[in-house]
Amino acid sequence: MKFAHAKPNDIPTLTSLLNRSYRGESSRAGWTTEADLLSGKRIDEAGVSALLNNPDSYFFIAFQEETIVASIHAYRENNAVHFGLFAVEPTMQGSGIGKQLLAYAETESMK
Fold first, then answer.
1. 57 CB-side CA count, 13 A
2. What total of structural domains would you count in the chain?
3. In this structure, what are the phi and psi dihedrals at residue 71, rounded to the nearest 5 degrees?
4. Residues 69, 94: contact at Cβ < 8 Å?
5. Minimal CA–CA distance to 62: which of 22, 36, 93, 35?
6. What are residue 87's DSSP bridge partners?
């Protein structure tokens, strides 16, 4: 598993992962589904781009081979970091990827 900061060219893949992980039929393969509560997209490319371009905001991603399989957003405010938009490929949830990515994000966001 490799971890990295997301880059602008990751926006389409990242947006797809976030939407696939939370909404629609594909999200039912995991445990984070909002499919029974909400419809439509969780976030669009403009929203991901705005977060990625904010200097106090970071997206961290996990790769398996060359595929993005998980992401987490971190927002630094004062002396705290807030995490959100945590997504793991639905068929891979429960495998420990999220735990590893969170540990990486906690370390990286405090640098």
1. 12
2. 1
3. -150, 160
4. no
5. 93
6. 71
Helix (H) or strand (E) holding 18: helix 11-22
Q: Which helix (H) or strand (E) holds 51?
A: helix 45-53
The structure tokens 């398996």 sit at: 64
24-79 tens-digit pLDDT: 455 445 555 555 444 556 689 999 999 999 999 999 999 999 899 999 999 998 88
- Can you tell me the distance from the alpha carbon of 30 to that of 9, in angstroms, rounded to the nearest whole number? 26
User: What DSSP state is assigned to residue 80?
Assistant: E
Whether the model clears a pTM of 0.85, i.e. scores above it, the answer is no
Q: How far apart are CA 56 and CA 63, in angstroms?
A: 23
The enclosing domain of 20 has a CATH number of 3.40.630.30
